Amino acid sequence: MSITELNLSIPAQRVLGTLAEKQRTVPDTYPLSLNALLAGCNQKTCRNPVLELDEAAISAALDELKDLGLVSEVSGSRVVRFAHHLEQALAVPTQAGALLTVFLLRGPQTAGELRLNCERLHAFADISSVEAFLVELAGRPAGALVVQLPRAPGSRESRWMHLLGGVVSEAVAAGGEQLRSSGNFAELSDRVAALEAEVAEVRALLARLTG
C-alpha cells in the first residue's frame, strides 16, 4: 500500500487505533463487535482528543478502513466483529505498530512519552530504541509514516506525529501540547483509569464464561 493513498479521517484513525490497542490489551474480547468498538473509541482515558462518535460515524469509518485493506469483518460469530491489519497493510513490525497505535489514539508525543504510553502494547527497552523505530518510520522508501515536529518554544524535546491522516497541520501539531501541559498527575490518573477499565472488561468476560 502506498502512503499517498492514506488520508484517514479522524473517526477512521480512532477506530483503527482502538482495534490495534484492544488486540494487545484485551485479546480475549478481540476481534471487536460494533458496540465494543464504540465504547473503546469514546472512552475518556488514553485518548486525545476525547471523541463522542455514534454508530453511524463508526460504521462510516469502518467502510473507509475496509476499502483500504486496513480492517476486515470476521465471520463465524453471531455478532459481526472487526479486526485490523495495520502492520500487514503498512508492512511494519509489531514495535512500529505499537507506536502508530499510540499516535492514532493520543496525537503528537515525544519519544519519552511514546515509550511510557506504549507500555501495555510493547515494552521498549529505552528511549533510544523508540527513537530508532521513529527514524525508520520517518525514512521509509515507500513513504514516511511519521514526522518529527518543530520543537515548541521552551520544550526540551521534539514531538513526533503519524502521517496516516495526511500532512500534519499546525493546528494538529499544537494540539499535542494540551496533553503535555496536563502534568504527571493527570498522566498517572489516565493510566490507573485505563487499568481499571481493563480489569472491568476482564471481569465481565469471566462472568459471561462462568455464568
CATH class: Mainly Alpha
What is the number of domains? Answer: 1
Number of helices: 9
CATH-level-4 superfamily name = Winged helix-like DNA-binding domain superfamily/Winged helix DNA-binding domain
Strand content: 5-15%
Low-confidence stretches: 175-185
In the CATH scheme, what's the topology name? Arc Repressor Mutant, subunit A
Radius of gyration: 17 Å
Keywords:
211 residues, mainly alpha, Arc Repressor Mutant, subunit A, 3-stranded antiparallel sheet, 9 helices
Characterize this entry briefly.
Helices cover 54% and strands 9% of the residues.
Structure, explained:
It contains 9 helices and 6 strands; from the N terminus they run H-E-H-H-E-E-H-H-E-H-H-E-E-H-H. It is mainly alpha-helical and 211 residues long. It is globular.
SSE layout and pairings?
Elements: H1 10-25, E1 32-33, H2 34-42, H3 55-67, E2 71-74, E3 81-84, H4 86-90, H5 94-106, E4 109-110, H6 111-117, H7 127-138, E5 146-148, E6 159-162, H8 170-180, H9 183-210
Antiparallel strand pairs: 1-3, 2-3, 4-6, 5-6
Helix pairs in contact: 1-2, 1-3, 1-5, 6-7
